[in-house]
Amino acid sequence: MKKIAFLFMLCLGGVIQAQPLDSIMPVRGLAIVAPSSKSLDRFIKFMENELTANNVNTLVLRVDWKYQYKSYPKLADKDGLTTEEVKKLVAAAKRSNIELIPQINLLGHQSWASTTYALLKEYPQFDETPHVTMPEKYEWPNPDGLYCKSYCPLHPDVHKVVFDLVDEIMEVFEAKTFHAGMDEVFYIGDDKCPRCKGKDKAELFAGEVTTIRNHLAQKGRKLWIWGDRLLDGSNTGLGMWEASMNNTHRAVDMIPKDVVICDWHYERADPTAAYLAMKGLSVITCPWNKPEPAKKQVAQTIALRENGSKVLKERYLGMMHTVWSGADGFLDKYYELKEKGTSEDGQANCFKAMFSAINSQSK
To answer: Quick check: is 15 in a domain?
Structure first.
């Protein structure tokens, strides 16, 4: 059998070589909250040692308000990163050949639990649902359908503020790509909003994506977003979290085709990347905290790239692991698992499983 396998590998007088990772999986990413000032050096060490060892080439940092903005200082967290600290991250990324992509959550995720975030706190007039008050004790589900607040995409002043922040963060990060979040948008086109009521929710969502994309394109920059609002939660059975139950899914046919979709599924390897690619969009598949689905997603992505048409295969850009805890908590668990060599579900172990599966393809 070994002899047959060897002969099979001979092709036109030469042995077929393993493909480079950039061909197998062009994007090999990690999405995580930006580190705090006190943990910056530790995080940079993680970038230079662990991310490079795992062949990570893309790092999305959720900055949001964790930067000392000069354009709108009142929106910045008091312990947010300084310009000098961000430049340390930029330099580390360059040394490690990692593309650094900043993220600010736009449209949705303007609050969490009982806390209203900086934008709506400072500019309450931007709130899509000002009649929904923040509870002292948050519970889900609730009568208001409150998960996270959204800003009104049709407010005449919101983009002046938002785009100043985006431009500033893109400059300091020296970035070519921006991640706008835009996941889990439950409040959009509210019946009590004087600007949005009665409007098509899919058109509102697509309009906001397009507005952000067009602003970035003026300086040759690209837009990434999460993909759940572009999937039909009812017909697919994916439900209201991983897909849309408020009719935004039709926006998939309305947004510019150069917007990159980060398609997240955490419980199963749902093959929605194929659907999004057939809609003309480039896709990055994203797991979270379960190793087995993540390994299946790796195999699925590789299979789609290997077996797709020349047009479709190029739209499957790769994979990005997502972390939804603080950076310090993730690093604590990562190094604990590395030291003990244990295997269990969880973000750190899923990261290890995903990149082990990816890196094994080039050996």
So the answer is: no
Reported as a single tens digit per residue, the pLDDT across 100-152 is: 999 999 999 999 999 999 999 999 999 999 999 999 999 999 999 999 999 99
CA distance 36 to 125: 30
The residue among 350, 305, 341 whose CA lies nearest residue 323 is 350
Local confidence band at 15 (pLDDT 50, 70, 90 cut-offs): very low
Q: What CA–CA distance (Å, rounded) separates 242 from 232?
A: 9
Please state the domain count of the chain.
1
Q: What is the CATH number of the domain that holds 239?
A: 3.20.20.80
Q: Which domain holds residue 278?
A: 27-362
Beta carbons of 319 and 261 less than 8 angstroms apart: no
Cα angle value 113/111/114 (rounded, 5°): 30
Q: Are 107 and 185 in contact (CB under 8 A)?
A: yes
Residue ranges with strand state E in the chain: 10-11, 14-15, 27-33, 58-62, 99-106, 111-112, 115-116, 177-181, 222-226, 260-264, 283-286, 316-322
Q: In the 8-state DSSP scheme, what is residue 344?
A: -
Asked, for residue 12, whether it belongs to a domain, the answer is no
In a domain, 346, yes or no: yes
Query: 3-state class of 87 per DSSP?
Result: helix
